[in-house]
Amino acid sequence: MKEIKNINFTEISSIPSLIKDFLNGALPQFADLSFNLKNFQRQISEKENSFTFDQRTILTDTLIKQFSALQLSENQQENIELLKETNTFTVTTGHQLNLYTGPAFFIYKILQTIKTAEWLHHNFPDKNFVPMFWMATEDHDFDEIDHFRTEYGFYEIHGRSGGAVGRIVIEDDRFIHEFEEEFRDSVFGTELILMMKKSYVKGRTLADATRILVHELFSEYGLLILDGDEKALKSQMVSAFSQELKEQKVFNSTKNTVEFLEKNYGKVQVNPREINLFYLNQNRERIDADGENFVLAGSGRRFSREEILLELEKNPEKFSPNALMRPMYQETILPNVAYIGGNAEIMYWLELLEYFEQTGLPFPVLIPRNSMLFLKEKLLNKTDKIGLGVEDYFKDLAEIVKNQLLNNNQVLETLKKNESLIKQSFEALKSQAETTNRTFGNLVKAEETRQLRSFERMKKRLLRAEKKKQAEKVQHLESLFIEVHPGKVWQERVYNFSVFFADHGSAWIRVCYEMMDATKSNLIIMQI
Question: What is the pTM of this model?
Answer without folding.
Answer: 0.89
